[in-house]
Structures are given as structure tokens and as C-alpha cells.
């Protein structure tokens, strides 16, 4: 997906449709062999569509703190018609990412924010329903910025055909730009851990963090993760082979980091910023590297400064912020490494697939309260 494409999707229109609401029985699917899948197992409320129509989540207010029910509205609109060169797509899986909270704000950011009254932006995997674009036909699976809605219209040239050899949900997870490329670029190109070095990753049981840690293990590093629950800690040490885990909610982070990294830290893959970053800065070795990937600790708060910033000078650290959309040149290399890592059992992952477009607000908030288990998405 090109950066241009990130800006060029045409999203659906507004309108109406009839629907009713039913209760459905809980449904869970078994775990996959190398990746595991958690589907929403609670009883879910589902809209049954009785006419062809489009549901769309519209941003109504800029959230103040946590995302509230009143910040977005689910509206119903007609399915848009297509013109020459365009494709009508039906979303299958919508990627739910921490950056949604950034896009909802109008703070300075790496791409335009979502304006009030616009459809909430989201990356998705979709099936082509109708095409007036040579090269895409009904039934093709594509990826793009489909938005938080059932259907969208895009210029065909802005869509990527999905890889038919890979399951669609995985193409929002380990094999995606947002997860796979982010973890790969930050770990191998910025941190570049050498065998025997100590690599710390925050948000370590998350979609990006768990892959970053495993890539660092493959490079021969000693890997320490920070997480917010015992369940996540157990997964990292018992199944993924992390050398140590710190529960930032219950452990004394400074003491535990000293115990797990007695020779100091060489690399830090930062998904959170906040108190973990501030402590890691104090325990860095000279010439360490920080890949600044995300700041989830402060997405729902006003901007706050960083304590121990002086350690960047004292320890001669290199800090590089990066955004995956700028690193598409590494996509092929990432896919090669990640496919092999998964095939060899060196990379494991979890997909957290929640059901129903209508659950968007509850689902996106799972990222900020830590209740997601792996790559979060909605099956529409
Ligand atoms: N730079 C890029 O191009 C790029 C691309 C994709 C993602 N990202 C960033 O990468 C990070 C991880 O994204 P992801 O998609 O893999 O999400 P994720 O890690 O699967 O889910 C988010 C996790 O963050 C943790 N968290 C939430 N609030 C926290 C807080 N206040 N302090 C510490 N941890 C907190 C929670 O885990 P615990 O239970 O462990 O707290 C939660 O499960 C995010 O910061 C995201 O913005 C950056």
C-alpha cells in the first residue's frame, strides 16, 4: 500500500436502510496451528440487514480522554454506485488499531486527522462486489482503507489484491504493513540487535510487540517484555521464549529490569512511552538504540513530557521515530522473514477477532484497557 493510497480512498455515501436486532448465541473457534484466534465469545447483538444498505461510523466529537459512545454515531446509508475505474467493496475484516485514537484528535499527526462528520478511517480486508476497473473482478479479495463501514467505493488503482495463499485475517496481522512491517522495521532496521545484546520491548504481548520480541530473539538477543497482565506474561515466557517479562502494573519496574538485564539495555522497542520508557532510559548502555513506534500510554491523555530525557545524551543513544507507511520498500523482505519464521515455528501470533461492526466503540477501547489478546479486528 503506497502512502498515496493512504490518502486516496473514496469512502461511501449516506442514506438509509431497514434493519432489525437479534441476539445470537456465543461462538468460539478453535485455535489455529501456529497462530491462535480468539473470537468474541460473549452473546453478541447483531443487526440483520433486510435491505441492501451501508452502516457507517461517523466521527461526531473529538474524544476528551477515553472514547465515549457519544463521540461516534452509527448511521445507515444507501450502498454507493460506482463509476468507471471504481470498485465497490464489502468489508470482511476491519483492522482496529491504537492509531484510531490519534486520527480522532486534531493534534498534529503523521497524516490528516479524521474530520468531524467523516467516516471513521480504518484499514480493512474486503471482497469486491462490483467492478468497473480492469484488473479487479467480483469476488476478488483486496486490502485498503475501507473505513468503519460495511461497504466502500475506491478507485481500483488504490486497492491491493490480497495474497490468495494467506487467510484474510492474517493479512491484517503478521503479514500486514501495520503489524508485520512495523515490527520488522523497528526491530531489524532501527534497533538492529546483535547476538547477546539485551532488547526490551513494551506492549510486548500486543500484535506489534510480540512480533518485535520474536524477531529480536531470532537475531540472538536476550529479550525482555513489559505487559499489563500475568496471562500475557505467561504467554511470552512459556510459549514465545522471551527471557523475562515485567508486569508494569504490579512489579517494581526499576528493580525487575535491573534483575532481568544485569548488563544493561542495548535496544528498546517502544510501544508505550510513559513510566516504562523513563525507567529504561536510566538503564541503557552507551550507544543504545530506541525504535519509537508508539505512545499508547498517552493517546487518551494530554501530552506529557519524558523524564530522564538527559540519558539520551549521557548514554549517546540513537532515537528514531518511524511510521510503517514510509517503509514499504522493506515489505518484501519482511514477508520473506515472517513467512519463514511462522513456518519454522519461530514466530507465533494471536488474532483477536471480535464480531459486528456495531461493536466498534467497545472493541477499539479494548486496546486502551489492555483486554485485547493479539491483533484486534472486527469481523463485519
Ligand atoms: N509507528 C507505526 O507505524 C505503528 C504501526 C502500528 C502500531 N503502532 C503502535 O504500536 C503500538 C502497539 O500497537 P498494536 O496494534 O500492536 O496494539 P496492541 O499492542 O495489540 O494493543 C495495545 C496494547 O497496549 C497496551 N496498553 C494500553 N494502554 C497502555 C498504557 N497506558 N500503558 C502501557 N501499555 C498500554 C495494552 O497491553 P497491556 O495489557 O500489556 O497493557 C494493550 O493490549 C501502539 O502504540 C501503536 O500506536 C505504530
UniProtKB/TrEMBL annotation:
Keywords: Oxidoreductase. Gene3D superfamilies: Medium-chain alcohol dehydrogenases, catalytic domain, NAD(P)-binding Rossmann-like Domain. Pfam families: ADH_N_2, ADH_zinc_N. SUPFAM superfamilies: GroES-like, NAD(P)-binding Rossmann-fold domains. Coiled coil: none annotated. GO terms for molecular function: oxidoreductase activity, acting on the CH-CH group of donors, NAD or NADP as acceptor. It comes from the Eukaryota. The keyword Oxidoreductase applies. This is Enoyl reductase (ER) domain-containing protein.
